[in-house]
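Schema walkthrough. Field components (list of strings):
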Amino acid sequence: MVSNKDLISIRDLSREDIEHILKAAKDIDENPAKYSNLLSGKILATLFFEPSTRTMLSFQSAMSRLGGKTIGFSDSKTTSTAKGETLADTIRMVESYSDIIAIRHPHEGSARLAAEYSKIPVINAGDGTNQHPTQTLLDLYTIKKKLGKIDGLKIALIGDLKYGRTVHSLLNALSKYENVKIKLIAPDTLQMPKEIIEDSKGPEIETGESIDGALKGMDVAYVTRIQKERFPDLEEYESVKGKYRITREMVEAAGKKLMLMHPLPRVDEIEPDVDTLEQAKYFEEAKNGVPIRMAIIAMLLGKIK
Amino acid sequence: MVSNKDLISIRDLSREDIEHILKAAKDIDENPAKYSNLLSGKILATLFFEPSTRTMLSFQSAMSRLGGKTIGFSDSKTTSTAKGETLADTIRMVESYSDIIAIRHPHEGSARLAAEYSKIPVINAGDGTNQHPTQTLLDLYTIKKKLGKIDGLKIALIGDLKYGRTVHSLLNALSKYENVKIKLIAPDTLQMPKEIIEDSKGPEIETGESIDGALKGMDVAYVTRIQKERFPDLEEYESVKGKYRITREMVEAAGKKLMLMHPLPRVDEIEPDVDTLEQAKYFEEAKNGVPIRMAIIAMLLGKIK
Amino acid sequence: MVSNKDLISIRDLSREDIEHILKAAKDIDENPAKYSNLLSGKILATLFFEPSTRTMLSFQSAMSRLGGKTIGFSDSKTTSTAKGETLADTIRMVESYSDIIAIRHPHEGSARLAAEYSKIPVINAGDGTNQHPTQTLLDLYTIKKKLGKIDGLKIALIGDLKYGRTVHSLLNALSKYENVKIKLIAPDTLQMPKEIIEDSKGPEIETGESIDGALKGMDVAYVTRIQKERFPDLEEYESVKGKYRITREMVEAAGKKLMLMHPLPRVDEIEPDVDTLEQAKYFEEAKNGVPIRMAIIAMLLGKIK
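Field assembly_structure (string):
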């Protein structure tokens, strides 16, 4: 990425690229004042063709913390897309109005398409069930910040591994590290797609359906929401919902070593009384979205080498 | 409030707290340039779970006038709340992205709940039919700016006193002052709830149903909108609507001393030809929302002592 | 405009006023750094009672590029208008919160009405099928930037000339120049309204229904979208849609001299393979919206003489 102008997929990044971004985010995290006017006069366009408050506010916050400004929309119903404008035309308009674009879109491949038409840098803020690279980078940042390394860790991915875009990106990113051991815990109908596993060669991968004892011995358990809106069939949703619910007992049984993560929002897949356990790191994870996105925006604009 | 980190209810404030805020607002009003960079680098999150353009724009304007930035949403349909996220989780996300929160929510008690979970200051921008403390403070500021005092005034509250949150807060605030005389003019079905009156001991309170002659001798007449959206029953709404309509004749008959207020938006409870009378102070009242909110934000962030 | 406080209609501007704005925009375009803090501390309110992403983002970008801030809304469903507030009251609220207003409204005459009530400058960002003066100014700016002049040009207006507000304003503006020759190419049911033509005395005007050969000899061809949402009758829309579609062959046959413009968004009235021809200037046109709006905002606030 450091040499490219866009951030579309975690697959485009080498381990070195990733480490470089994590290092920049760490410096921002530790010395925020150094960066508070770095992007003064710059404009980020947040083009959210589907709503995602968390990601949008995180990008807006990141741009503000860098001294820049944000323009954009959060609902495609009020855009010229509703009048029949193509994505290519929207991008060629917005690139005149801003210095960098963050795009969220319900269709796979749309961020890549946007980047092809755009003369200014494009960041993929989630395209359908495909990629969400800034989420993966903040996940990696959170792990490394807490555990000091990623090589050699034992990591369980739990919940909806089929439709959950964050776990696809994360698995791919982890495959760039050494001696990582992965457990994929999901109902059969929601297991990690084969093509994602084949594309993530490297880690030792074990799959399973039962959450009982699955946390034991793990360094990281990464839980994802069973996303109702990704299910074509409501009955299928009802049958799996709640099966992968993390309780306080499970987490305590797994021991102090465990680090419990979740991309949020959570519905009921982690019980609220888990929040106060020291293993629970998902709110810190969300917080880490700001320095990571600050690093990415500043690097793509050439303000951090 | 000065010592607390949140502003949730006018009931939490002593008379001294209120006077302290009004004084700070006055200084801001008179010396805006002094404050124009006070919150440079700070971020206000405006979390509007129900729409309120006036209040939101007023908060955004206040934050801008202090040199700060705003992030947020104005419609809960496009938030992760729609995906089933709890308010507590939303708050723990947003506190990572901002320095202070203004929350508007349809449910009573939600602002208090938000404050309990938040590590950063929370301002209640209206929670259901409960409280709207920044509105009350700007109302008090408007009265004091014009009349020089609040003690000893004769004040009529007119219209929907049952569902109107602003008059609840205002009555409570007035009870902290000396020798205030209050008239509560409303149809029986919309009179001020008993528990609010009991909670506002101090002023001499008189209730009545008829608006005829009610303005006479008053220092302030505070009119509220008969809010259609608060009525479970449309017929009830139709039967009372228009009964409490303020005309030019009424205001002229009441004399020059009267100060006519309204929290806005107004529908037809004050006739448009009243606007040009010197007694009409509701647009000045709206304007006063900016210095008052500037004072509150700056005080909660510790930038005004 | 230079002496007025508002920009409501292109008809209010003399040729000298227009030239003055174009000149200011040119200086901004060439020396952006000179203007980057001009409006520091100022607030633009963008009141969009109907959605228009392009225009809104362009205004927000312009204000940001001048160092100012923006507040506003993009959907009247979430405003107090939905509660029954009049436009006059909304304006008298917003003028307290901002320094200048850009208003977009579905009803003709609404921008003029807003200006009458407002103490701060008002810019019409489109009122129904009536006027959209900032679009016209950026169109003129685009022509002059490319061709060096407007006097003596041959200009074809093509497509929906009945409902298309931009072509109404543009025709009126062109009538202020010397020796302009205009072709109005549209289906009979969508021809330029007689009152607009009568109001635009000066240019030699020729009307026609066929697009065949219509581009030949033209300096500028200005194409507008057949706007589905303006048609009361869907059948009428279907019958004319596509008849006025610009192809690569047509543009190449017209020669290098031609400059092809479109206010955007485009649906299918210009084929995508036209985009790469050097005659296609519509994306540059969109880009020019920023310096033009910067010039207008700064002039109305008295910061450019």
